[in-house]
Amino acid sequence: MQVELVKEFFAEAAHSNEKGLHGHSYRIDIVVAGEADPKLGWLIDYGEIKDRFEPLYAQLDHHYLNEVESMADTTLEGVRSWILERLTPTLPYLKDVRVAIVGDGAFRPVALPADPVRNMPARLRFTFEAAQSLLHIPEGHPCRRLHGHTYRIEVGTEDLAGLREHLRALYDVLDHRHLNDIPGLEAATSERLCKWVWDRLSKELGGLRAVMVQETATSRCVYYGD
């Protein structure tokens, strides 16, 4: 039986290009293909894929790609080629590596209905891409290194009418920036970013109910203004 397996990883990294210093959340799919072992019922253990990729992942996640050894090209294709070249000799059945950026890549706000399970009101969602480093935390912590995220922001208000233009102004300040350079975001944890967004919006409109900041696929912070 011919099969194709995909193991998905997410990496948070910064890089510099013609748009300046910024960052992204990257989705990396490691694709293997071949004949499944009829006795075991699988092609390869997913754990083996993870183990073989781990040394490369450790060089990418929470790092500045322009300083990664031998990575001359930090575009998506450049990152893909860098991984493929190093993983091919070590991972059996490797077919392909796919690298994509999580998020919208532009200001494309989306209206979301109230979600009682997550304790979230009706809200607008948008994403932006930025770099940061948390220089106030101890040496050795990965977040102290220069890295990046595709941030997902959700803002809930009593009345969503007119919110879009305020979020556009936020996007223009935050997108493709090094957050450390923005007053008030010199140490931009998700908690502080929530409060920064809340304080900025509350000066311009009323009825704020929640601000959510999601840095990674599995981690988010919600602030209700308390």
The CATH superfamily of the largest domain appears as: 6-pyruvoyl tetrahydropterin synthase/QueD
For this structure, the CATH topology of the largest domain is Tetrahydropterin Synthase, Chain A
Strand segment tally:
10
The CATH class label of the largest domain is Alpha Beta
Q: What would you say the CATH architecture of the largest domain is?
A: 2-Layer Sandwich
Task: Please tell me the overall pLDDT.
Answer: 96
Helix count?
4
Q: Please tell me the total number of domains.
A: 2
| Oligomeric state of the chains present here | single chain
Percent range of helical residues: 10-25%
Sheet of most strands: 6 strands, mixed
Structural class: alpha+beta
**Percentage of β-strand residues:** 35-45%
End-to-end C-alpha gap: 57 Å
The string of secondary-structure elements, in order, is: EEHEHEEEEHEHEE
The general outline is: globular
CA gyration radius, whole angstroms: 20 Å
Low-confidence stretches: none
